[in-house]
Amino acid sequence: MEDKIVIYPAAALFNARETTFNSLLVEALEKRGYKTNFPQRDGFEFGNLNEVLSRKLQQDQVDSAVQDIIYFLDMGIFIPKSDVVLANLDEPLDEGVVVEISYAKLMGKFVIGFRTDVRSPYGTPRDKFGGMHFFPPYQCHKFISHHMLSETPEKRENEMSSLVKKVHQSIQDAGIIHPENIPDYAKNNPEFEKVLDGARLLFGGIKDIHSKKGLEEITSRYINHKERLKSIGPKYE
């Protein structure tokens, strides 16, 4: 049996509007037969992570630790272990998404950007990118413009199905298979290797990163390798 292609949905997830759309999209993708590395489901529950870190670190160090750990999970595990990155490019553009698609493309992943937004802050709706800033779409191998009025639940479901059909066709046309291995030029890039190494330090060999035992092990590793992990990120004052 052919292995399922794995999709990483790159999207903002900071309010009900965003998380609801993300969930509906992932549900439709998985019904289509894809696997997903879905951050709001497969990533950390902030409260649990904060609670474990707070028992081991000073309070003013916890927020920074959460940021570090989530960064290494997304950039060092989810994206490298995905075959396709599917990016929501609706307004306002999420800074994390822009970084993720640039990183993923350089890593050799197939990047699809889609836009359902009718706002056109950098042009007009008639532009090839629908009036969005043109830099982010240039990080995509495929750009999909797809309006979704969602006037009724039935229409919303049909429009979501149509979007997923376009995504599926793009993946088929590109000949993507699982696993899409990281190419040698990316493996040999020292900047990629630093991030992958950080992810291995934190998560390597842990079967369930969401369990109490898993979170405690991640916290312990973070403390033990804190200086090494910090050296991978920017120096700041």
List strands and helices in order, with pairings.
Layout (H helix, E strand, L loop, with lengths): L5 E5 L5 H16 L3 E2 L2 H4 L3 H11 L2 H20 L5 E5 L6 H12 L3 E6 L26 E4 L7 H22 L9 H4 L2 H14 L8 H13 L1 H7 L5
Parallel strand pairs: 1-2, 1-3, 3-4, 4-5
General description of the model:
The protein has 237 residues and is an alpha/beta fold. The chain has a single domain, classed as 3-Layer(aba) Sandwich (Rossmann fold). Helices cover 52% and strands 9% of the residues. It contains 10 helices and 5 strands. The chain has helices spanning 16-31, 39-42, 46-56, 59-78, 95-106, 153-174, 184-187, 190-203, 212-224, 226-232, and strands at 6-10, 35-36, 84-88, 110-115, 142-145. A 5-stranded parallel β-sheet has the order 2-1-3-4-5. Helix 1 links the parallel strand 1 (6-10) and strand 2. Helix 3 (46-56) packs across helix 4. The longest helix has 22 residues, at 153-174. The chain is globular, with a radius of gyration of 19 Å. The protein starts with 5 loop residues before the first strand and ends in a 5-residue tail after the last helix.
